[in-house]
């Protein structure tokens, strides 16, 4: 619901070419493709105001020939992240991406820039960059408590009576009579 609202809010803003939701196994991303250059200075100031740092990304793979570059580099030019050490800034120039809230990329098949928000803080920076009012997502509605099971009103059950005592089973063949054993002499 929130995603649909955001897609509709940004779709017709001047300077934006396309807005889309991109699902990934690691988490969904919100992509905004601009048809004009992004003001990196303004975006950097907004990021610093919120406690984030914007750093260049993959400057070494981006200089490779286009065919090889497309294999090794996804077009990301800048990453916005929190608490970036000098080491992570250095390794990011070689294409090792720090865990950030947003990325800027250049479309490899054109000159358009793409803003990729990886979480809600990234979307907030985008809204501030576009001078739009940011409305945080509504909290999820709590799951309704299951109703307690209704007490069934069953008629009282009569106490069980004892089963009848087992009857002795009569033998299958009657015992031989005493007269049948008497032998007659001839």
From the spread of the alpha carbons, the general shape counts as elongated
Mean pLDDT: 75
Category by helix and strand content: alpha+beta
Which H/E pattern describes the elements?
A: HEEHEHEHEEH
Describe this structure in words.
The protein is of the alpha+beta class. It has helices at 2-10, 40-49, 66-72, 86-92, 120-129, and strands at 16-22, 29-34, 53-56, 76-81, 102-106, 113-117. Strand 5 (102-106) and strand 6 form a beta hairpin. The longest helix has 10 residues, at 40-49. The protein has five helices and six strands. It has a domain at 2-129. The mean pLDDT is 75. The protein is 23% helix and 18% strand.
Give the topology.
Blueprint: H1 2-10, E1 16-22, E2 29-34, H2 40-49, E3 53-56, H3 66-72, E4 76-81, H4 86-92, E5 102-106, E6 113-117, H5 120-129
Antiparallel strand pairs: 1-2, 2-6, 3-4, 4-5, 5-6
Note the main attributes of this structure.
elongated; 186 residues; single chain; 6-stranded antiparallel sheet; alpha+beta
């Amino acid at each position: 619901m929130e995603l649909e609202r955001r897609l509709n809010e940004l779709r017709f803003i001047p300077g934006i070419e396309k807005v889309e939701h991109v699902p990934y196994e690691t988490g969904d991303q919100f992509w905004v493709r601009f048809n004009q250059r992004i003001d990196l200075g303004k975006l950097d100031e907004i990021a610093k105001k919120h406690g984030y740092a914007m750093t260049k990304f993959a400057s070494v793979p981006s200089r490779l020939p286009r065919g090889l570059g497309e294999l090794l580099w996804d077009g990301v030019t800048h990453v916005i992240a929190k608490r970036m050490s000098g080491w992570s800034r250095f390794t990011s120039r070689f294409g090792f991406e720090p865990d950030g809230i947003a990325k800027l990329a250049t479309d490899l098949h054109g000159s358009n820039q793409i803003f990729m928000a990886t979480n809600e803080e990234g979307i907030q920076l985008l809204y501030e960059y576009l001078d739009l009012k940011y409305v945080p997502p509504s909290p999820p509605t709590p799951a309704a408590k299951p109703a307690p099971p209704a007490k069934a009103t069953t008629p009282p059950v009569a106490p069980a009576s004892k089963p009848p005592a087992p009857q002795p089973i009569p033998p299958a063949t009657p015992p031989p009579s005493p007269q049948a054993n008497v032998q007659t002499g001839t």
